[in-house]
Task: structure prediction
Amino acid sequence: MLEVENLQVFYGEIHALKGISVQVGDGEIVALLGNNGAGKTTTLKTISGLLRPRTGRILLEGQPIHELPPHEIVSLGVAHAPEGRRIFNRLSVVENLEMGAYLRSDQRISEDIEQVFSLFPRLKERRLQVAGTLSGGEQQMLAIGRAIMARPRILLLDEPSMGLAPILVEQIFQTIEEINRQGTTILLVEQNAAIALSVAHRGYVLESGSLVLWGTAAELQEHPDVKRAYLGEGI
Result:
């Protein structure tokens, strides 16, 4: 479904991505792992059109999208729930969800809002509440729900567990699995490698803008370097 080919991305003179190639198949959950500064968020921002690659290509169903503006990429079926949630703090929960559907002209927006509420019942309880007054976990639910409202074929999730209590992390990831079961392909950036690999089919490990490891989730869980660096296990 999604192919990233030899992506080179710079911030000024800083070489952020050094020729990475990633593939995400239809129906998969693929995890991007790595420490802070590894290039994970830069990868998602480039896929969603917020950054431009200096070289390389991004293909969606074989069609290049790396030169398109972000709103056109969304219209093709790529939605991004960014790091730090980035919800509209002064809008209500429902208004945030409606903003996620801003490119749509069909008659099923209300139906899809109810679908988000079925995934995140807490949001239904707070549907008229101003989003900036939600808890961190609720804001993360809202950020994911807003992205779902675009009816994406592939959902880019950036650090969904950041700053959340363990019980909320578990709930969020159970919902991510349910979103995937309902047919949405997911590219997941996550520092919590253990929980990311517990839901992913495959994964890639980034270090300093370069790919250093890749394989199935099971293979990465057993790799000594991943155990040592990301799973807190000795070898």
